[in-house]
Amino acid sequence: VTGPESTQAQDTEQLHWIFPQPETHPTTEEQLKAEVHAIYAGLALVEERCIGHQQSDLASIQDQWQVLFSLHRILLDEHNDFFFASQHPSASLALKQLPEKYAMPARMWRYGIHSFLELMRHQLPDSLEHLPSFFHLAYSMIALLLENVPVFESIWIECLGDLARYRMAIEDSDLANRKIWADIARYWYHKLADKNPNLGRIQHHLAVLAWPDMLQQLFNYTKSLVSVCPFPNAGESILLLFDPLL
Asked: InterPro entries from the entry (predicted)?
């Protein structure tokens, strides 16, 4: 008597015979190394183009928002591929250290995200069609990296907080949306502060978000100033806080 499990096994065997499965081979160190270096070469070229556009005359980019959007999206995709390849489970320690060696998280934030957001912010309302779309692209990309490249967890969390605070800042007309993004930014900064309680910079971010609660602002600014790693601008921020009262 043939049982259901035996029948299922026979069916599976027949399927493998009819549709043979391709052989899988583990990725070798040399393959990973070649892939990472190829990705980096392409990334560097796109990054150079992005920097060139960011430094060009503003009048010359008025009609190129879609081109710039696509270019920066490609740059973010290249960064994503670089992080995934260099942090592959089969990668050597030398490959896994490449993102830190070449300051890739900082470069992605500076040239791939922040500079383009600033460019669009200064060109509002002409860039209004593209700014929200690019913001959500960048936010989702960082969230993906937070999930899949945890070695830079603190950096990704701060980037998400910075992006949420940035979105809050440009929501001038929609107060409800502004509050939502302020709460999201606060969530990420509190998460980072729990992981890195000695970072005064994060307390300074929280102080900015605490407006108009002056008492809470003063509390966070003070924590920022007396932290193990104090934020140097905190003293000036405290003076500005009391300036209307003097």
From this structure: Est1/Ebs1-like (IPR045153), TPR-like_helical_dom_sf (IPR011990)
Q: Give the separation between CA 205 and CA 213, rounded to whole angstroms.
A: 14
**CB < 8 Å & 24+ apart, contacts of 96-100:** 96/151, 98/36, 98/40, 99/152
- Both 216 and 155 in a single domain? no
Please indicate, yes or no, if residue 5 is contained in any of the structural domains: no
Helix or strand (DSSP H, E) at 121: helix 115-122
Question: What residues make up the domain containing 227?
Answer: 196-237
CA 50 vs CA 8, 74, 115, 165, 209: distances in Å: 56, 10, 9, 24, 31
Radius of gyration of the chain (CA): 24
Nearest to residue 205, comparing CAs of 214, 192, 215, 113? 192
Among the listed residues 66, 84, 149, 77, the one whose alpha carbon sits nearest the alpha carbon of residue 108: 77
pLDDT single digits (tens) 118-169? 999 888 888 888 999 999 999 999 999 999 999 999 999 999 999 999 999 8
Residue 245 lies in a domain: no
56-70, pLDDT tens digit by residue?
A: 766 667 678 889 999
Residues 207 and 162 in one domain: no
